[in-house]
Design a protein that fits this description.
4 helices, Metallo-beta-lactamase, Chain A, 102 residues, five-stranded mixed sheet, alpha/beta
Length: 102
């Protein structure tokens, strides 16, 4: 099985140049985004990876700091209204609970 990890953002929460930390885990059958900073479409475009939101199979959220989830709402709206599909969100149950609790 082929597996690749693509660093998409390598900056901290206040970066103005390298986007907040996130990555893509790619296999021949799926591509998972790991964390979702805003603006995620710009992060993907600037990465040089050739990935776009339509290539993503789902998103893994590691924790609920704003620099890791601030692009999630936009990603899910884009998937729903533009791609016409659901984008699975994968995380520890406590992370999911706190994410949607607000």
């Amino acid at each position: 099985m082929s597996l690749s990890l693509i660093a998409l953002g390598v900056g901290d929460a206040f970066t103005a140049r390298y986007h907040s930390t996130c990555a893509a885990v790619c296999t021949p059958g799926a591509t998972l985004l790991v964390d979702c900073p805003h603006p995620i479409r710009r992060v993907l475009a600037d990465s040089g990876s050739g990935l776009d939101i339509g290539d993503l199979s789902g998103v893994v959220i590691t924790h609920n700091h704003a620099d890791h989830v601030s692009g999630l709402e936009g990603l899910l709206f884009f998937a729903h209204f533009v791609l016409k599909r659901r984008m699975p969100v994968i995380a520890h149950p406590e992370v999911l609970r706190d994410l949607w609790r607000g």
